[in-house]
Amino acid sequence: RSSKLGRHVSCSIMLALLPCVSCSLVLSPRFLQQQQRQRVSLAAVRMEGVEHGYDRDPRDTAAVDVSRVEALLVERAELRAERDFEGADTVRDELLDMGVAVRDREMVWFVNSGVGAINGYRRDPSDMADVDLSRVEALLEERAQLRGARDYGGADAVRDELNSMGVTIHDKDGVWFVDARRLAGSRDDFGGGGRSVGGYRRDPSDTADVDVSRVEELLEERAGLRASRDYEGADAVRDDLAKMGVAVYDREQTWVVDQRYGGGGGDRTRDFGPTGHDYKYVGLPEVGASQLLAINGLIAARLEAKLDRKFGEADSLLSQLGGMGVSLRDREKTWTCRPPKDFGPLGHDYERAADDDTPFDEATLAKINELLAQRLQAKLTRAFDEADGCMDELQAIGVFVNDKLRGWRADGGAFPTHARIEGDGDAAWPYADEAVLALLAERSIAKRDADYETADAISTKLRDEMCVALDDKRGTWRAVTLSGGHFRVGPRVESGLADKVASILERREPLRLAGDYDAADALQDELQELGITVDSRLRTWRLGAAPTRSGGRGGGRSGSSGRGRGRRGRGGESGSWRQR
């Protein structure tokens, strides 16, 4: 609901709702002191005591800044809890830049770059299947080169060849693994659990009575439907299997008769005892009787929704449990509960802006703190309508809240929209922070007034004249080093490689602007040989391929490298740097 501010509100939209202020906005010393205190990575802001629930894969021993990974996982968990999925995706991209893959379903993370990684891809640590590893690595290398040259047809052909070897690639996570389903036609036995049908085998520990031939017939039918992308039909077949008491585990490529659901045919029984579910509580702390009753009720309701295939409802209940600090492990049938965060005597962790001197009597101030505490608890338990109501009451008092900075103010002033973080250009950057903050304030006012031309001009000035790169999603800015008008994003590189990239970009840019595309393409090839990807639209360069955020052809064609003519890319040069 765009009319509500109960959800995670960006600073720029917040400014749009504030009373009109003069463009000659004066930044007070207290405002600047507040901004100075915020010159830390936003991953570390207000995360004390918050847990993310992810474990590192025990097979992963690669070198990585674990404390930084943990901080980012905590930040991502909090953003997801606040339903700020765009912000959470941005944090995931930052983890990918560090070479870290996150698997939400298994609640694990691992390093997918460095030793064992091929062009940014690493084999899933849990995959122990037999495969021609050298051939897979060669094909991954070839596919990366084709994608770098924007030969997506060729890259797709290589991916098909990998699929024929049973290899599945997850571009978003940067991992690959052997998928038994793809090998169903080439071998009849996967060992241990008997004959493989449709890529699935029966769990070797399962000896329950069931019509095996009927199960295998349905598995074959489902595999064919999934291969033809008829997922609705495949789900219907899975329902038929469930009615027989058969549970299918797609990731493990196994099936088993689940006695809890009345295996062997007929309707599934749903008697899970007094709790209404079969999950076991593990760990500390002890849970109070009233809280335990509420948690058991939600777990039971989620289990019932899953059995009825109401997955949207089940996901909503899981989110509500997460807001209560409860984490479920479906495979192990266990749940844990982290202790509630202590927000102190006020019941919340929002601070009043340091430069807000609006006078309040004691009763009004107490009311503000009460509403902030109620809103926070409502958000944590996913009661967003209640949280929106609290926000409405706060606005009626004249209070505006900034969730990202965990602050509030009632003087009609502006929250700082961006915090400074470390950048490549810090050492030689000649400007004062105040100059950047003043331009950011003007830019926010222009965006509030839908004057995007002015806002774009300010962004361009910050980038091209002051060497400042903005990240509106995360609310940060940094001083960068421009080389041929481009700056680095993603993982850091050693100084020797950075110097080579800078030299090539400085030579490439005038050739490209002069229309000498053949010469510019030759230099682009040199960059690709160094493993560098250039985005001429965003004026950035990075080591390795850009993170992909969608399926299909590994991220599509929007991340243009701006090469050559025609489809090879003169079009990327005039794209506006507009961020609305």
Topology:
Blueprint: H1 11-17, H2 29-37, E1 55-56, H3 66-81, H4 85-97, E2 100-103, E3 108-111, E4 117-118, E5 121-123, H5 133-148, H6 152-164, E6 167-170, E7 175-178, E8 201-202, H7 212-227, H8 231-243, E9 246-249, E10 254-257, E11 280-281, H9 289-307, H10 311-323, E12 326-329, E13 334-337, E14 351-352, H11 362-380, H12 384-397, E15 400-402, E16 407-409, E17 419-420, H13 433-448, H14 452-464, E18 468-471, E19 476-479, E20 487-488, H15 495-513, H16 517-529, E21 532-535, E22 540-543
Parallel strand pairs: 1-3, 5-7, 8-10, 11-13, 14-16, 17-19, 20-22
Antiparallel strand pairs: 2-3, 4-5, 6-7, 9-10, 12-13, 15-16, 18-19, 21-22
Helix pairs in contact: 1-13, 3-4, 5-6, 7-8, 9-10, 11-12, 13-14, 15-16
Structure description:
- By secondary structure, the chain is α/β, with parallel strands linked by helices.
- It has 16 helices and 22 strands.
- A hairpin with a 4-residue loop joins strand 18 and strand 19 (476-479).
- Helix 1 (11-17) packs across helix 13, helix 7 runs antiparallel to helix 8 (231-243) and helix 15 (495-513) runs antiparallel to helix 16.
- The longest helix is centred in the middle third of the chain and has 19 residues, at 289-307.
- The protein starts with 10 loop residues before the first helix and ends in a 37-residue tail after the last strand.
- The model is unreliable at 1-50, 184-194, 261-269 and 549-580 (pLDDT under 50).
